[in-house]
Amino acid sequence: MKSKILFGSLLLLLLLPHTIIEADTDEDLLTQSTEQVIEPRYRIVLNEWENMDLDGTAPFERAVPPSSFEQADDLQLLPESDSFGYDDRVLYWHNNETVEFEVEVDQTGLYEIGFDYYPLGEMIMPIEGAIQVNGEFPFFESRRIVFPVNWENESDEFEADRFGNDIIPGQDPIQSWEQLKVEDSNHLHSRSLQYYLEEGTNTISLSNLRGELLIGNAYITSPEEVLEYEEYISQTDGSEVIDSLHVYEAEYPSYKNSSYVRPVATHDPSAVPYDSRNLLLNTFGGESWTESGQSATWEITVEESGFYYLSLKALQNHSSGAPVFRTIYINGSLPFEEAEQYRFRNSSSWYNETIGDEAGEPYLFYLDEGTNTVTLIADASPVERVLFTIDEVMSGMEELSLSIRKLTGNQLDANRDWNLSEYIEGVDDLLLEWADMLEDEADYLGGLTTGDDSTDIVTLQIAADRLRTLAKNPDEIPGRLTELSEGSNSVAQLLGNLIMEVQEQPLLLDRIYVHGEETLPDPEAGMWTKFTSSVTRFFQSFTSENLATTNVEDDVVDVWINRPRQYVDLLQNMLDQNFTPETGIEVKLSIMPEEQKLVLASAANTQPDLALGISNWLPYELAIRGAAVDLREFDDFNEVGNQFAPGAFLPLIVDDGIYGLPETQDFFVQYYRRDIMNYLDIPIPDTWNDVVSILPELQRYGLNYYTPIAGAVAFKPFQTTAPYIYQFGGDLYQEDGIGAAIDSEDALRGIQFMTDLNTIYSAPLQVPNFYNHFRYSTLPIGIGSFSEYVQLTAAAPEISGWWDISPHPGVEEEDGSVTRWSTGSAQTSMVFDGSGKTDEAWEVLKWWMDTETQTEFANSLLTLYGPEYMWNTANLDSFAQLPWPEEHKETILEQWEHLREVPKTPYAYMVEREISNVWNKVVFEGENARSAVDDSMVTIDREMRRKLEEFGYMENGRVVRPYTIPTIDMVEGWLESDG
Predict the structure, then answer these.
(1) What does the alpha-carbon distance between residue 166 and residue 177 come to, in Å, rounded to a whole number?
(2) Per-residue confidence at 551, pLDDT binned at 50, 70, 90?
(3) Burial of 211 (0-12, 13-18, 19+ CB in 10 A)
(4) If you ran DSSP here, which 8-state letter would residue 563 be given?
(5) DSSP state, 834?
(6) How far is it, in rounded angstroms, from Cα 280 to Cα 271?
(7) Which of 951, 960, 651, 710 shows the shortest CA–CA distance to 830?
(8) What's 704-742 look like in SS3?
(9) Does residue 499 have a pLDDT over 90?
(10) CB–CB of 658/652 below 8 Å?
């Protein structure tokens, strides 16, 4: 069952088993066999089990009550009175607890595992667990099991915003007892997961990874048989098709298992209902309903039991041109096998899809008199084999690339030839084999699309062609690794992008029809209707209100915001519903096309009253030119300012004034793969000395440690370089602000170590995407930001629960403390001077950055739009209340105690550029660090004098006005003072 795949392989969404090839440090290591780190995928294990010629498992069902769980009394076994109607004692499962129970089976075979459960807590983030059988994970998918939570709209009617457009309703979790049959959390397998149990007693463990719930009975059952359509028809009483036509608007599902699968405003006269002026939420799904496993359920009421046809008015115009798939459940059950993996063809126009066979013969569905449910589940399982093959090819390519790098010493000389075939036998045959595999999958996808080429097929064919081209001259591969696995246009990159796209299953629905032989309404509006609608909308565009930056009434606070429309719509609705009724201050939000417009508007005296979501350098640039309001002038600034990390204010200060508030806040913490680091028995570093000590062990396995410098290209910004200088006790500027201080002994120590990481300790020089390498195991540890956190949470479900974060490594001091300074500013906000409504703008800003508002906004974004819309508020109290894992919030808040953003000066850009130049000179040109810094100081000093004279701090080379370099101590003193 052990795989022979290289541990350092670039594993994409279907993460195959990792293995290790250890470095040839001695003869024993040369002959040591590979060792498995992570279990094989379910597909491999299930195939092996099925090849064991197991007799068919006899019908079997065993329920294990919570009171029979091992150590149930040591956990929280609740009385029946606290069971929310379960009528038995239940177990409170949370906080990384493990539940164990034993089950005795009469026959060795494959079984399914299920649970009764009642979700608790905020439920915005998934509730996750992991299952072991007899002390082991039988396959990788068992490391993450999701307990779905159903959601419903807060209201059955859509409210309208100030422009008359429908507002997406809030979402409420449905707390009720549910039953789960354990499934693949990525939903790449259409049926429940099966587990191999030996005859006799088996021990099953369920470990908590995230969230909380009540557990009722656990179930062990034999796999359920699903009827084929003909059997389904023959076993259902009655054969008459009921004459009727029931029409249901798809935008009103009864519930769905994902809060952010939502109604969509489609400005198309073919959608029902339609309004030429206003955006109505008249369809459902689309790009919000694209992840495999997402489901929506509609209640269908019929007056008579019998057979009905089921039709969906659908639009499926996914850019790839590929079909998408849905599995159809009636009253919570799969009615027949053909209702699985049902294909919806790609089309640029609406069509009525009557669910039926490939010949066009519609299927009959039996419905009971009264209320029934129809559930549609996004289903990517038809492309699972494609993903598996792509992953195999990519794993092999990474193994080959690593072997070539070891052979060449990772120092390729363009003038040196390599006889690669002598060192790696059969490399050309290997490339051709991969090309054949990819072409087979292209043919398979062609069968799914019924002859219509999709971009997915074309991508596979291009990748195969490039592999065949490389196979023609295998000795040239060392010089062409960028074409194979390392370049932005390499085969690996093509396949990496494809593996994400091929899983997407978007489907937009307008209506659901339950009917007999009746003719359905035409799905597309007529040509005349479309023409008149287009003309009407054209003329209305001259008078309709929108979110563009336009002049507003004198009594309205004009706010420009640099964020996408979803954020602006939500904030405008919160202002209209909460802020304006409480204060009487009316606010109009407008979306900025670009930040530069603020500078131009200020110069033209057409600036707004308040700007939100802007870069942290803008308040300083505008303030030093007299265009911003000093927020310290407001009496209650101290109360507001104490909600933020003092170090976040440093770039917003000019002299003794603060000209902006932090709005969102980044963080740099250490990410690590728990599974890999634990297996290799490598400790998680706390200091830079610890990092240096583990690097040889990591590199021994072809792994490494990531630093953000590797993520930058030629230019290394402050966020990647300043932490080293700060942590070693240095500073960027002289205390009086007149000149840089990067030539001090402490700063030089930081710069020297920063370059030593690459020149001496062989940390990666360039990593285009840390998230990818971390997810696919080649960089199992490193320093990342909020961006990586969102990506790992939203787009790496297969390793959920198997990665963690810890504080940024730092420098250990003599007293044992660790200095961990790092940067962390993200977006800020500012009030403009000269608008005449500074007091009103300050009231808006205070309300916006208030703990309650920030928390409501963050939670609403998550529930309406999903985890990719996580909001990293700079309000520390609000951040502590967000529905993120508690242990992660504690780590981030701890790191924010060491937040030290770089202060702005008129010549800061030159200091930033020259530190970057020093790194490049030392690392690439071998120059001495001190010599490189001395050269840079000359350049910085010249630019410093020019800029300080421009802003009136110097005249003819003499200081005429002191320039204050803000410090954290200074900010803390201001916030503690009486103002």
Answers:
(1) 33
(2) low
(3) buried
(4) S
(5) T
(6) 10
(7) 651
(8) CEECHHHHCCCCCCHHHHHHHHHHCCCCCECCCCCCECC
(9) no
(10) yes
- Find residue 324's DSSP bridge partners: 344
Q: What is the pLDDT of residues 216-230, one digit of tens each?
A: 999 999 998 899 999
d(CA 854, CA 569): 15
Q: What residues contact residue 198 under an 8 Å CB cut-off, 6+ apart?
A: 105, 108, 134
More confident residue, 384 or 675: 384
Q: How far apart are CA 389 and CA 386, in angstroms?
A: 5
- State both tokens at 939: 């350049």
Phi-psi region of 605 (alpha: psi -120 to 50; beta: other; left: phi over 0): left
Burial (Cβ within 10 Å: 0-12, 13-18, ≥19) of residue 172: middle
Contact between 940 and 947 under an 8 Å Cβ cutoff? The reply is no
If residue 781 lies in a helix (H) or strand (E), which one and from where to where? Answer: strand 781-784
The neighbour count for residue 329, using CB atoms within 10 Å, is 18
Least confident of 443-457, 542-556, 628-642, 792-806: 542-556
For residue 570 the two structure tokens come to 């939500």
CA 491: distance to chain centroid?
Answer: 24
Structure tokens at 60: 């079997």
Q: What angle do CA 344, 348, 351 make, to 5 degrees?
A: 55
Residue 681: C-alpha distances to residues 16, 23, 677, 697 (Å)? 21, 16, 6, 10
Question: Using one digit for the tens of pLDDT, what is the confidence trace for 326-365?
Answer: 999 999 999 999 999 999 999 999 999 999 999 999 999 9
Dihedral of alpha carbons 350, 356, 362, 368, sign: negative
- Output the six-digit token pair for 440: 């087979």
Q: Which two tokens stand for residue 790?
A: 């969102």
Ranges of H-type helices in 575-707: 580-583, 596-603, 618-623, 637-641, 674-680, 688-700
3-state secondary structure of 25: coil
CA 540 to chain centre: 38
How do strand 281-286 and strand 586-591 relate by DSSP bridges?
A: unpaired
Distance CA 662, CA 659 (A): 10
pLDDT per residue as tens digits for the range 929-979 = 999 999 999 999 999 999 999 999 999 889 999 899 999 999 999 998 744
CA nearest neighbour of 375 among 526, 242, 552, 253: 253
Model confidence over 64-108: pLDDT tens digits? 999 999 877 777 899 999 999 999 999 999 988 999 999 999 999
pTM summary value: 0.87
Tokens standing for residue 42? 């379910």
Evaluate if residue 277 carries a pLDDT over 60: yes
One-letter identity of residue 805: I
